[in-house]
Amino acid sequence: MILFSLIGEQPAPNLLPTRRLRPDLVVLAHTARTAPIAANLKALLEPECACRLCEVDPYEIPKIYNHLVRLVEGFSGQPLTFNLTGGTKPMMLAAYRLAQEHGSPFVYFQTEGNRSC
What we know:
This protein is of the alpha/beta class. Helix content is 41%, strand content 23%. It has helices at residues 12-21, 35-45, 61-73, 89-102; strands at 2-6, 25-30, 50-55, 80-83, 106-107, 111-112, 115-116. The strands form two sheets. The protein has a five-stranded parallel β-sheet with strand order 3-2-1-4-5, sandwiched between helices. The protein has a two-stranded antiparallel ribbon with strand order 6-7. α3 (61-73) packs across α4. It is globular. The two termini are 21 Å apart.
């Protein structure tokens, strides 16, 4: 399975679901601002699974969507899952649209009180 994760300023919403799902590959979609966080996540995750960094525009939904479409085309026939937790809201909207078009599952890491779901 290939997991597309949207990287925001907090790494836990990407780290914990990735460790739980154990994908073969994680695509870490980040912005210029979150590139250091993505690099740190890659270093933490690579002993467990392969990681690929991908810089996307933070706010232009069509640009984000088209970039993700090109990435997904390279993984034809492989199961995809999208972690919609991190990134900007426009990144989430573009990724959600792509997940919906491909019939792919998505996850959203939710924390309330002292519980993580």
